[in-house]
Specification:
Strand content: 15-25%
Strand order of the largest sheet: 3-5-4
Order of helices and strands: EEHHEHHEEH
Structural class: alpha+beta
Distance between the termini: 19 Å
Mean pLDDT: 81
Helix content: 40-55%
């Protein structure tokens, strides 16, 4: 049984973690392993991890790109990293006038916590 579900809010083939059993309780299927690896690969870049962290830590759970782009790289590079996070299903975005607002995709934080927690 697959523990991962596609999120309708995420673009392309992005995914959101659904109800995940801890890794110590049940082995991942090959398809789930590919999806989870893509998520962790997206987070393995320090700039992406900082951007993801800044968005997750925002009051209300959403951030304008104008408020999070000061991570030591150029604006086009920030946009590239945010796109990679969206493609991995970690973020969802919404354009409002000139700015794009980002939110952590529903279920991602809880799914990652569940996946990495100890099996009871």
């Amino acid at each position: 049984m697959s523990k991962l579900a596609l999120s309708p809010d995420a673009p392309d083939a992005a995914m959101s973690l659904g109800c995940c059993q801890p890794l110590g309780r049940e082995a991942l299927t090959a398809a789930d392993a590919v999806k989870v690896a893509a998520m962790f690969k997206a987070l393995s870049d320090p700039v992406r991890l900082r951007l993801f962290s800044r968005i997750a830590a925002q009051p209300g759970g959403e951030a304008c790109v104008c408020d999070i782009q000061d991570v030591g790289v150029s604006q086009p590079t920030v946009s590239h990293h945010l796109r990679k996070l969206r493609e991995a299903g970690l973020l969802i975005s919404e354009r409002r006038a000139s700015w794009v607002y980002y939110r952590v995709a529903p279920g991602v934080l809880a799914g990652m916590a569940g996946l990495l927690s100890e099996a009871a």
